Write the structure tokens for this entry.
Amino acid sequence: MNEQAKEIEDMTVLSIKGLRAVVAGAALALMAACTSGPVATYPDVTWRHLDPIVFAAGPIEKVAAWSNTEDGSIQSSLPFNPGRMAMNWPDDRIQTAGTSDMLRYSVTEASVTSNALKTTKGIKGVFTDDQSDKIDLKIAAKLELLAPNGTPKGEVSAMAARSRTLSESMSVSEREQAIYDETTALLMDLDRELERQINNNMGRFLLR
């Protein structure tokens, strides 16, 4: 492509994108002039609909042991927190009775990270709705049974991971909803893995 043709293509792309910016700006101005609509809320994921897992134990201690320092973390920009929701798991799934042993439940990892994907450039890119971001979600937890003096008697750990891509045409609310839906599925994966590990490795401490 010669220099003149390249300049024409660049001007065309700028012209189209400029028109988009004008339309988007007008839409935003109109929205600002109107009464704001309701802000989307995202309820905590719960497991109350499932049968409880009953331990021969006493109190349950909960420990938030994760950090959000991963490269590409978007946790702080989300209106919900997977780690905080995972902390509710023993409240819904665990019951205790019968001994002075203690259960300690720790969420050891809770991450949501985003990585940009390669998108189409030039005039073709203006009319192409690419997948622009890859979202990776991971959650991990540990459950320990301790004697009254702190001696470990049993332990299980579980980890769940999911990922999905988001298209560049999605709105902020659509992106949040997609990540929330994936978070819900992720936490259900964690529940299934924790229950499986408990049944396989800590069954002798359960009250049937």
